[in-house]
Amino acid sequence: MMKLQKVLLGTSAVILSTGLLFGCGANNDEQEPDPTEEPSEEQNQGENEMEEEQNQS
Fold first, then answer.
1. Residue 46 DSSP label
2. Residue 23 to residues 13, 18, 27, 47: CA-CA distances in angstroms?
3. What pLDDT score was predicted for residue 22?
4. How far, in whole angstroms, is CA 28 from its chain's centroid?
5. Is 57 helix (H, G, I), strand (E, B) or coil?
6. How far apart are CA 43 and CA 17, in angstroms?
7. What does 9-44 look like in DSSP terms, one character per residue?
8. Terminal CA-to-CA distance of the chain, rounded, Å?
9. Model pLDDT for residues 6-46, shown as the tens digit of each residue
10. pLDDT the model gives residue 23
11. What's residue 46's pLDDT?
12. What are the backbone dihedrals phi and psi of residue 51, each rounded to the nearest 5 degrees, phi first?
């Protein structure tokens, strides 16, 4: 009976540790900008150019 408890305790520890590592891991997805960051100059210039093109039409 004690051996079964030790095996169950060990496997549950491994499962919980693995879930913690993958669940709290860093996500380095650079496709979505951080909403707290201000847009870069390149993005502002691109938006200004698009507005100028629309105004000229």
1. H
2. 15, 8, 10, 37
3. 86
4. 6
5. coil
6. 41
7. HHHHHHHHHHHHHHHSS-----SSPPTTSPPPHHHH
8. 81
9. 999 999 999 999 999 888 766 665 566 666 766 666 655 66
10. 83
11. 61
12. -65, -40
> Per the structure block, which two tokens stand in for 56?
């000229």
Q: CA distances (Å), 38 to each of 33, 42, 43, 57, in order?
A: 9, 12, 10, 29
State the residue for tokens 């496997």. 11
- How far apart CA 27 and CA 22 sit, in angstroms, is 10
**Two structure tokens written together for 55:** 């105004």
C-alpha–C-alpha distance, residues 20 and 23, integer Å: 5
